[in-house]
Each structure stands twice: as structure tokens, then as C-alpha cells.
Amino acid sequence: MVPTFPLPGMPVPVLGTRYHLLGAEEIPFYNVAASVFPCDRPYPYGATVRCYLGGARSRVEDYPEGTVIHGDAETYLTWTADPCVVEELLSRAAEFPKLWNRPQQKAISDFTGNGLFTSNETSEDWQSGHSVLPRGFNQIKVKSFAPQILDKTRAFVREWSKFSAGHRIEGVSDWLTSMTADAVVACSMGLDMQNVERMGAGKPPHPFIDNFRFGLGFVTGTINAKTEFGAKRFVPGFGAQAQLRKKYEQCKKTMEKLVDELVESTRAGELGDRHSIIRSMLEDRAASGKHVRYGALYGHVINLMIAGHETTAATLGFTMQLLAENPECEARAVEEVRNVLQGRTEPDADDVPKLQYVEQCFREALRLYSPVTGINRDAAHDTLLQGRRVYQGERVLVLTRALHTNPEHWGGEFGNPLSFNPDRFAPDAVRRRHPNAYHPWGFGPRACIGSQFALFEAKTFLASVLLHFKLQRVPGYTLKASLHAGGAAPTPKDLALIVYPRPGGPLCGPGGIMQPLAPAAPARISVSDAHLGSAQEAGATACIKRDDEPPVDSDAPVLRALYGSNSGSSQEFAAQVAAAARRAGLNSDTASLNAAVKEGSLVTDGRLVVVVTSTYNGSPPDNAAAFKAWLMDQNDGSLKGLRFAVFGVGNSQWHTYQQFPREVDAALERCGAERVHPLGACDVDGPSFDSDFDDWLTSLLRTVGGAPPEQHTDEDAAEVEALREFTLDEASGGSNPVYMDIASTMEALRKAKAEAIKSLGGSGRGMNRTRGLEVASASRELCKKADGGRSVRHVTLRLPEDLCDYRAGDHLQVMAPNDPALVAMALEAIGVSPDAPVCWDPKVVRRQYRAADPGVDEELRSAMPCIRFTATMVATWIPDLTAVPSRKVVSRLAHRVRSEEVRDELRALVGDAKLFKDSVDAAGVSLAELLQRFGGRLGITIGELCAVAKPLSWRFYSISSSPAGAADPRLVTLSVGQVNYTTGTGRVHRGLASSYLGDLEVGGMVPGFVRKLAGDFHMPDDPAAPVIMVGPGTGVAPMMGFLQEREHLLRSGQALGPAMLFFGCRRRDEDYLYEEELDQALKSGALSDLHVACSREGPQKVYVQDLIWEHRAAVWKLLQQPSARVYVCGDARAMAPDVRKAFQRVAENCGGRSGSRASNMVAAMIESGRYLEDVWAA
């Protein structure tokens, strides 16, 4: 039985192991961190433990009726300080949702309502709120809030400047809470509550604040009979609890009335501008197309107050005290502020991103005293987490105090993890650290939507305070976290500070006296009207303007860039050829090779045709098959007058490397076309993939009289055009839905194409093959040992009724999404809210993203409307965030970033090949991780990210089933090997397609279609023909389809020829795939002979090629028959060449042929289609 996580010590009666919550700290989880996850010695129980609740019981609710919850789920709680657990929770977000379903949580919801942070992910109110609210706090909107934030910061400084030098200010936390509450309400709702000014004047705060604090304190327990009445609560007949409850009910009514007044004032246009969150909830639609429910507005406003002011205020208090305790850190921060402001007394919106060390100080305080003490996730079903058993309903709690003081990630050169050292957040230190070792804002879809707002506000405030005041700690004061009455986040207990005017600062008068702040001039906010609206679109437009190409003379020479491409690489290269040609003054466009034949554009009028194509096991790509047939039918000399150049894209692991490009090059020459440049080639398995193409294109352009691409500083026009493809669309709102899942997106695309076809005359032209493939049944593990380190899943998908025509041996082509953790990382880095609506314009798809939607022609795209998705959908399905970016991608990124500092750093990285290889390639740094290194400083749009990034590639899987004789011919099965390893950055990489397909639940959907092979990797038309199949590992997949087909033929009464299968695995008891099915095929006669090579069972490794040689007599007997066919599927690098050599040896030994004749025999079988390979790069 799979074990659970260990207990943190022996349980005791009643308490269980909850005694770890007790200790010197007032925050219980701080005590757990100190005793269970100490930072000064090895963890006594490991980095993840299972707390036994003893006599307590945490009732689990909100699971489907009839669900049987394991008893442990309500009596155990998993605690973790392990970043790897966090990473797994992120990658399996659907299996570990955040639920708001425990009794103590339900009690809080009585006051907070069903708001964004106090509700289940399954709640419709959460889904609509999570779609609308984050739009108000993306990086662009945050920058537009700079005037309000600075105004409230200025009010704070003015009130404190009224104190005399050396004054001890009590209640610092109340001051900070007033300031942050004022700022968030002013920015998000358009109301200035003037709590800072009220506090300075000795007046009570706005009623909103008092009622908010009492209500929240009552439901969280920080306000109780003891805090309110003291000993008086024991007086008989006093009725302390009844009085508390009555006060709470009145407080709640007051809050509901206040929120209702805010809503009505906003609705009437009396309050709030276009940035108002309330206005957004009233007017904007969620991604589902629905408005936020009116009854949910109260909950969302209260939740916004909880997250929007108290947490930031608390962290600012900790930061100020820690800087007072560490004068050397304070001095560095002050120096940075002065260097950035250059004599000015207030920061503006453009200054804030430059305050790197100030940000480090704030982040370090967040690390030590995170406002969120625990981040919970619940297991949606019985499952494994890090190989340990977790039961349905069981709660996993990430203890941020423990996570953030884990000595493995926070100690070492930086000293005691509990010490304050902002250098922990220096860019280089962040790059080296596990990406999930720090989560003060939460993580995944439930992460804080206001993190960018809080960071911007905190840096603005700290810069102003540090410039004006010298902070001094109160002698004898010890910083301690506490939950004060009415608070939900740890706050510095009884925080007081002694303040002086900063020497040489704006408030320092003669003799060091404090001079009150004079009325300030309006802040210099260098944010244009475009920024106040939608800066991302404005930025994109500016970039497009800057890079517009000069018009081309209609009489200029013609260059057509034609491509043959399945994955999109050749298509992208062709687009670059066309763009460079246009810059050189040529009339140029792109098309597939098949389209060129269909259009009749290969005319002999002196035009230049540049062919960029890949090859597939020696065959042309799908969109070049008709071109090959046309070309081979042309007579010698028939294309005289046509000029051409060919570039081949391939993988040297295939023995057919560059075969089709060479055929095209030779055939065009045979037909009389003039070769203007030598055949070029690049190896996608080599280190110089991009640069080889660049060098060839440079040479080609020089040959035809154009300027080489490196002489142009701007990016190619195809990329510029792509900037318009995806644009933020926050302002439009309206009735157009925003699609947020792949199923609804696929359906929307299908409908849009159908409407476009109808508008074009209803020909059906261009209705593409890509559809949503539904998971028909739960995937099953094919390997026998779960702990063997290998996993292969048998996946069953259902094809659409109109696209279910396939044969055993065909491929399924699927598109898998990016890891959710990398998506969240990338969006955070570019400052885009996950649920921000993004408009996709089909009319401007000019680059490789056409490969993600094959078969749709230009005319059809021009008739399709713009479609809106969430930013998460775009980042999930368009750019490849997992791949290690090439130097070209990083160069493009450098060209687009707004920060000169980041641009210089990226260009230095690109310019140093060794540095790039060591720090990016060798470490396996994904594009998302690279973006994260510069998070907050990039200033690029989501359109720019999609334009510069490599697109997600299609994944190809050999189908392991046959429709012949199947009960449901729409069902198709795959054998999917799971990919899982740790990169050089410490990130656990799970293969995109393999993990996605393996993890999909029944009813889940993946985009894809059947890809009928251009070759003949199918069973022979003559059932009596002998077949030899070689398929080690998952290479057995198509063979399983062949055997199903043969089973059907047997049941139909057909006489079959012999069938021999060579299968390979490591050990029979570990990864012998389909053992039962293969035994059944032997018994039925569908399979004549089965030979299994186990490479790890004996003292000597045995592979399939060894067994071919061992059974050479039987193999040769079959090979001698003219109709015999050989099928090989699997690894192209080692297995396929070794198997070919094995067959050559058999021909030499058994057939008496010389080495060259044996080699020619196998080559002749390949040429005649009797020796067929379906191989891939390992």
C-alpha cells in the first residue's frame, strides 16, 4: 500500500499532533515552522508532514452528493515547506483546487460574502468575479493609479511631518492601514475616505473602516468577549456573547448599506471613473458572457478591502521596522531613491520600476512575515502527491513561514533564514532559487490579483517615506507578529517608530528640526492618455508604426517563398524570407507548396521561387504532397525561365535527413529551372539551427541583390504584423463572450469558420481538420511498477463523427498546452492579468501560428470575426513557454522590451555565445523562467510575447488502434510515454503532451486530428503477405493497431500470412507493455511469433536488433517472400539504424550476400515500400 506522509511526532490524546501549533509565537503556524520545519537544523520529519487533528474534526463540505469522503480527510491535515510540493500542486491545479468548505471558513463568509477570496472555485460568483476583477489590477491599470497612490502617500508624509523631530509615533499599523485603505478605495472605487487626514486631525476613521474591522474581527475570532469586555464578561446577566452578536449584526447591516450606496452612486455616475472596479462589475461581462451577479457585489467589495489594504499595510510596517533595525540596508535604499529621483522629492510612475533595492527590501519583509500564513488546496479525489497517498477531501496546507525559511533555499551565503537580508532578492539570487520557494501572494488561479498594485503602492510609499524621514527603532522593542483585533493578516505587534527628518531631505530644517510639508505641486506623472487607456495596445501600435515597411513598386521583381511544413518551422522561415525580400524591394509573399500548384503560380516568367521544406521519413510534408506529385510529372526542361533556391529543415537523427529537399532541388534543376543559390540545410537537432538559416538567407539576399537581414535594425514585417494578432481588449466589454477553456474555444472557432464559409458562398472550402478530441475513458497505466521510474499511459479519445476516417498506422496530431505554472509565471512577468480579455484577429495571422490551425485559407480568415479569449488561454495555447528560447528569440525579445537596462542585459546575453550556452541552454531555462528573471521590467505586450516566441508545436503519436471491426470506430487509442525530469533550474519538467494526455479526465478535450501518413505505413492490401514488426517501448503502438486489424480479418474468415513481432522493454515485471493483449494475439493467430528483448534483466543488455539476429533464420525465411513487409517504429537515433544493420547482417549471413549487396537489398526494400519506418527523435 502506498504510504501517506509521516506524522510530525507522536500524537497525544485530544490534541493529536496539533501541539506543534503551540509555542512562543502568537501566530500558530510560526510555531509549526519553528518545531516541525526548523531553519537551523535538518527537518526532523521531512519537508512535508501529516498533522493528526486528534479530538478535533474538520468537516468537509461541497463535494458532490453521495461522495464517500475517507475518514482521514477530516482528521488529518498535510503541512508542507517543500517547493516541489507547491510545483506539483500548481501543475495539477484541477486535482487540487482551493475550496472554501470548512466550518471556520463558512463562518468568515457570513461577513465577507461569496467574494473572490472567500468562495470555492466551483462557485459561479467566483468564476465571474475572477474573470472581471483582475482586469482592474493588471500592470497597465496599476500605472494609471499612480496619481491617487502618490496623493495618499503625500497626505501621509504631510501628517507625519507635523510631528517634531524625535517624536515617538504610536499605532504605526493604524496609520499604515489608513493610508492603504484610502489608496485602494480611491483607486478602485473613486472614493477618498480621507482616513489619513482624519487620523492626523484626531477624528474617528470613516464608518466603512470601523465596521469592516469589527465585522472581520468577530468572524475570525480576533474580536471576542475577552477583547471587548475583559473581566466584565463574567458578570452574571451581562450577556457578553449576546451583546457581541447584536453589535455584529448591526455592523453587518451597516456594511451592506455602505456597499449598496457605493454601488448606487457608481451606477448613477456620481462616483468612480472608468477604472472603477464597481463600474467594471456592473458593466463588463465575465469570460462566460455573463455579468457579475448583483448579489455578489457586496462580497467582492469586502474581499477587495481585506486583500487590498490590510495585507499591504502589515508588510509596510514590517519593512519599516526591519529597515530601522538594519541601518545599512536603509542607507542603500535611500541612496537608490536619491539616484533614481535625481533631486526630485517624489517618485513618479516611471520611477517606480527602477527602485530595485527598495523592492528587494519589501519582498524580504514579505518573505519573513507573509500576510497569508497558509495556502490551502484540497484533493479532488484519492491521489498521490510526491508519491504519497492523499485522500479525497484532505487539505494540503503550504505554510508560507516554513516555505520561506526553508534553509535549502534561503540559507547558505545569505545567513540565517530568519535574518533580514534583501540581497536574497537580487536578480542573480532569484534566478538560482527554486521558482516555487517564494509565494507570499498565493499561487495558481487563486493567487492575489492585486500583487502588482501592492508592489507599486509599496515602492511609491517607501521611496517617499525614506526620502523624507529617518526611521529609528524604539529602544527595547522586539518585532513580533500578531493578529490584532479586527485583522486577518499578521501585523507588527504594538509597532511604534521614532522619526526624524531625513538629513538633507525635504523636511530637514535648521538644526535638524522637522519642517511640515508644504502644499505639494501636482506630481509629474509621465503617463500619456494612451497609457491611461490601454498602454499595451498603444505600445503595440507604436512598435508597428516604427517597423512599417516602405511600399514596394508593383513592377518590382517577384519572389515567392513556398513552404512544406507540418510543425510550422519551415513556414516561419518562409515568412522571414518573404519579409526580408520585401525590405529589399521585391514583391514577395508566402504560400504552401500545394497552394502554389493549385494557384498555378509556378510560372516561367523569370520569377524567383524560394522553397523552404522539411521532410517526414523521406516523404513530403502534408502541404507539399501534391507539389511533389506535380513536380515529378513535369517534363525535362519544362520549367526553364523559373529561378529557384531550396532550403531544407530536418533532423539528422533520421536516416532520411534532407531527402525531400534534395529531391526538390534536383527535380527543379532537371526541369530546366535555374538554381540561383546552393541548397541550404539546417539540423533542428544541432546547436546552430537558427543561425544556419540566417547565414543562408544573408547569402541568398546578397546573390539576388538585396540587403542582408542583419543590416536592418527592425524586426521582420511578419513579426510586426503578428503584433496585431493578439491585443488586450479590456475597454470593449460588450456582449462578445470571452472564452476561457479549450472546449468552448474550439466550438467558437468552428462556428466562426462555418459562418465565414457560409458568407463566402457555402463551398465548405477551408473547413479545417483541427477539432476537439474528447477523452472517452480514463487512461490506464501500462507499466507494471509505479516506482520503476517509467510510465506509459493508454489513452482513449473519441473522434468527431465527420473526421473519424483513419487506418491503423496513421498518426494522431495533437496540440498540448503549456504548464499552468509557466503560464502564470509568464503573465505575471509581463504584467497581464490571467483573465484579461485578449482579442484575436484572424485577418492578421501572418506567421507560424497558422500551423496551429492548418487548412484554413486566406480568404476564409478574412471573413472571420475577431474572437476574444482570456490572456491565460492565449498564453496556454500559443507561445511555447516550456522550450529553451533560442538566441534569435531572445534577440527579438530584447528588441521589444521597454527598459533599456533589460534590453542591454538581454543583448549582452545574446552576444556572448558561451554565456548563453552556459546560462540558458545548459541550464534548460524555459522562456517563462527567462521572462520571470526580468518580471516587472519588461514592458512587453501579450501580442509581442506571441510574436517573438516560438509557437507551441504539434505532437505526433502513432495510433495504437484500428477502426476495423471496432464496436465504436470513432475511438482511437494512443500509447503515451510520460516525460518527467528536473531541469538545471530545479524545475520539474513534465512533457507537455504526454502529461496533458495522461492527466486528462473523462470528458476532457484536446485539439487535434488524424494525420494520414503520406507514406504507406499500413498493413499490406494482401492479408496473406508476411509482416515483420519491430517496435520497442512505445514503438509497439502502431503494431497494436495492426494486430487489431488482423484480429478483425481473422473473424471475417480471411487467411493471414505470418506476423512476427520484436518488442523491447527493460524488464518484464516493469515495462512490458500490452503483455496480455500480445498473449491474446498469439493465441488467436493474429500474431505468429513474439520475441521480447529485456535490456535490464540479465548481465548483458539485449535489444530488439539482437533478437533479430538470434532468430535470423526465421526472419530470412519471411524476407525472401516478395510480398513481405518490415515495419519499424521507435527511436530514430540509435534503434532504427541498428535494426537496419541487423537486417543487413541477416541478408549477409543467411542470403550469402556481400556487405554492399546486403545494404542495397535493404535500400531496395525501403525504395519499394517494403521496409517502412515510423521513427522519431529520442
Could you characterize the architecture of this molecule?
There is one protein chain. The chain has 1178 residues and is of the alpha/beta class. Among the domains are: 124-312 and 443-512, Cytochrome p450, CATH 1.10.630.10; 550-720, Rossmann fold (3-Layer(aba) Sandwich); 726-770 and 816-952, NADPH-cytochrome p450 Reductase, Chain A, domain 3 (Up-down Bundle), CATH 1.20.990.10; 1016-1176, Nucleotide-binding domain of ferredoxin-NADP reductase (FNR) module (Rossmann fold, 3-Layer(aba) Sandwich). It contains 44 helices and 34 strands. Strands 12, 13, 14, 15, 16 and 17 form a 6-stranded parallel β-sheet that branches. The protein has a 6-stranded antiparallel β-sheet with strand order 25-22-29-20-21-26. β15 (643-650), α25 and β16 (674-675) form a beta-alpha-beta unit. α10 (207-220) crosses α12 and α29 packs across α31 (871-877). The longest helix is centred in the first third of the chain and has 29 residues, at 297-325. It is globular, with a radius of gyration of 33 Å. Mean pLDDT is 83; it is low at 520-550, 707-721 and 846-852.
